[in-house]
Amino acid sequence: MPPFHRIPAMLAALALATALAGCSVSVVDGTSPSPDTSRQDPTPARETDPPSTAQGASDRASLIAAATRTVRCDGEYALMDDAIIVRVEGACDHVIVNASGSQLVIDDAALVEVIGSSNVVLAGTVQTVRVNGNANVVHWTGATPTVSDIGSANTLTAG
User: To pair with 39 at 20 to 30 A between CA atoms, which of 66, 113, 127, 132?
Assistant: First the structure.
């Protein structure tokens, strides 16, 4: 085929591709409206951004109300799920947070260990706090525990 005969075919393909580029397809099952996915947030939140939850009793009540999971502690509790809000009821010997972007409300614990990053832990009385991750918030209401923080940009507060 001579090169001049390819030009109309290439122009037609280019015009078709340009026309279809603005189209979008969505599947609707009839149970709820589908979100508009054609627009994107210009600054999407990163999973490693520090949580925006401040410490305190009112935030504790808000997190408890927003909890997506409530569990009873039977000695040890390990949180391994990212981006979840968990309420842990009862006293724990050992609480491990090996997640990112999660929020945890606990009663009392002998040891709270945070290995992940960008988590919020609101606790009652704690004897020992160990933080190995980055950009975590750990807040307790009892006496100041023994604290070990080998991560960076962590906020560890009493009140």
Answer: 66
